[in-house]
C-alpha cells in the first residue's frame, strides 16, 4: 500500500530535503507541500493525503493552527498528523498532541526512521522520538511537572520577528533601540510593532506592554 504524504514547514530548503529523503522509500508518495498556515490548510483539504508531516513553529499560528483548520474542514476525514519539529520542549509536544497529532518526532531523525514513523502513524500507531512519549504520558496522567500550555491564538499568530519586537517593547526599548538590537531599520520596527498591535488587538503601546506582562513576556 502507498501512503500519500503532505509536508508542512516554513523553510523551503527543509521541505526539499524531506522530499528527497522520502523519495526513495517504498510505499510513500509526497503529494504536496506548503510553507504557510493558509496554504497548508488549502493544500491538505484539496489533496486529501494520508499523513501530514507538520512543523510546530511557523508564522500564523503554527502547526496547531494547521491541524485545527484541517480538522474543522474535513472532520473525521482529516488525515493523520505527525509533528516534525526542531523543538523537543514538553509544552510544544503536549500542545500538539492535545490538538490531535498522532505522533511527534524531532528533526534529528534520519530519513529511514522518518519513513518508518510515517508508515506507523498511517497504520494507527502513535510515534514519538525518545523521551518525548514520557511528556505525553505524564501530562495525561496528571503527573507532569510542566504546566499545561494555555492556548493563546493571539500570541500564536505572531511571527518570530514580531515576538522579538514584542519582547523588547515589553522591556521598554524605544523603536530606535529595537532597531539597533535586531539590526533592522526603525521603519521595519514600526511595521512589526503595528502588526503586533493589530494581531493582539491592543490599542496602544501601554496596553500592549500590560498585555505582554500578563503573559510573562519580556
Automatic annotation (TrEMBL):
It holds the Pfam family GerE. The keyword Ribosomal protein does not apply. InterPro entries: CheY-like_superfamily, NreC/VraR/RcsB-like_REC, Sig_transdc_resp-reg_C-effctor, Sig_transdc_resp-reg_receiver, Tscrpt_reg_LuxR_C, WalR-like. Residues 4-122 form the Response regulatory domain. Residues 151-216 form the HTH luxR-type domain. The modification 4-aspartylphosphate is found at residue 55. The keyword Transcription regulation applies. CDD domains: LuxR_C_like (cd06170), REC_NarL-like (cd17535). Keywords: DNA-binding, Phosphoprotein, Transcription, Transcription regulation. PANTHER family: NITRATE_NITRITE RESPONSE REGULATOR PROTEIN NARP, TWO-COMPONENT RESPONSE REGULATOR. This is Response regulator transcription factor.
Amino acid at each position: 500500500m502507498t501512503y500519500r504524504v503532505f509536508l508542512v514547514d516554513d523553510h523551503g530548503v527543509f521541505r526539499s530535503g524531506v522530499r528527497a529523503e522520502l523519495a526513495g522509500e517504498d510505499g510513500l508518495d509526497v503529494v504536496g507541500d506548503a510553507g504557510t498556515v493558509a496554504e497548508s490548510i488549502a493544500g491538505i483539504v484539496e489533496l486529501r493525503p494520508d499523513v501530514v508531516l507538520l512543523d510546530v513553529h511557523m508564522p500564523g499560528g503554527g502547526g496547531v493552527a494547521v491541524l485545527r483548520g484541517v480538522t474543522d474542514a474535513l472532520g473525521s476525514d482529516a488525515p493523520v498528523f505527525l509533528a516534525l519539529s526542531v523543538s523537543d520542549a514538553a509544552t510544544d509536544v503536549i500542545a500538539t498532541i492535545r490538538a490531535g497529532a498522532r505522533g511527534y518526532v524531532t528533526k534529528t531523525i534520519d530519513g529511514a526512521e522518518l519513513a518508518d514513523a510515517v508508515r506507523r502513524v498511517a497504520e494507527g500507531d502513535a510515534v514519538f522520538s525518545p523521551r518525548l512519549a514520557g511528556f505525553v504520558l505524564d501530562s495525561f496522567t496528571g503527573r507532569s511537572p510542566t504546566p499545561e500550555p494555555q492556548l493563546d491564538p493571539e500570541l500564536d499568530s505572531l511571527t518570530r520577528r514580531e515576538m522579538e519586537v514584542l519582547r523588547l517593547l515589553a522591556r521598554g526599548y524605544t523603536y530606535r533601540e529595537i532597531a539597533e538590537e535586531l539590526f533592522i531599520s526603525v521603519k521595519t520596527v514600526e511595521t512589526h510593532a503595528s502588526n503586533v498591535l493589530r494581531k493582539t488587538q491592543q490599542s496602544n503601546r501601554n496596553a500592549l506592554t500590560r498585555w505582554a506582562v500578563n503573559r510573562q513576556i519580556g
